[in-house]
Amino acid sequence: MTENQSSPDSDNPDTISEQAMAWFVRLRAESVAVDERRLFQIWHQADPAHRQAYAEISAFWEDADFRATLDTATLSPQFSPRNNPPKNLRRRSGIRPDAKLLLAAAASLIIAAIVYQPALSCWRADYCTTVGEIKTVQLSDGSQVTLNSGTALNVNMRNGQRHVQLDRGEAFFDVQPDPQHPFQVDGRYSNTRVLGTRFVVREDADNDIISVVSGVVEVSRDRQNPATLKVNDSIAVDARHQSEVSHQPTGNATAWLKGSASFDNAPLKAVIAEIGRYRRGSLIIRNQALQDLKVSGRFDIRDTDKTLESLQQTLPIRIYRLTPWLVVIA
């Protein structure tokens, strides 16, 4: 950090919270230089909002219930840091090692969520959406594609081709019929071929899921032994095989088009993972018992804070907000 704290975003509450979190982490390291402490005092005294943000984080951290939660808290897989914690985050009086690791992870997640993720999502993509954004684009052949949150795709409509590469995320395709030029969508593992229909392709961590809303599509892995899907059919394709075709209403698969997410007796960890797709930062569940709580219902993905409050009202859980980007469920 530098003495010059002024920037176009310095008055933004989210930016101030990010700065306060970074200072909170740094000041609890084993070695903090005198100059760093002086810079912190300059930042701390520069604005009442700085002092309030730092006081809120400090007070929250000392909350007994929250500290108890951290004893067993684990980051969900999609947010877990891949690197080992720095050596200067070893145990120091007053702060548990796992607590320091969580703080360091949170600070890293803030930077990644705010600075890097939008750039990575849109890098070399013809169309993309940032976290929480849903938009529809029209292709040159008249087909329409609706991109869900955090989605990136590339399109090739040259020389009679109709080819889309889904690089990440989820998209709903409303394909203009053209028997002479099949429409193809390639996901991480799947290849989907259609003539004219409506369907969803979703990339999860371990597989692609294709769900048909109308018409007929062919889905294969490596373009071998395609399976034929009709209305309300779904299939999952991973690195090794493709599942059997399942038949069920596609309402849950397309609920996001209307700004909601639907669950039927789903584990809380799956619900939280889905909600996390529409907000920046990290959602932490305390332990396995809470992760396996069953959830049914339809929730608003356009207001994830409201959704979290709804879960708190209907389940034996409490919601802790450390910053706009770090939420603990205990």
UniProtKB/TrEMBL annotation:
InterPro entries: FecR (IPR006860), FecR_N (IPR032623), Ferrdict_sens_TM (IPR012373). Residues 126-218 form the FecR protein domain. Residues 18-59 form the FecR N-terminal domain. Pfam families: DUF4880 (PF16220), FecR (PF04773). This is FecR domain-containing protein.
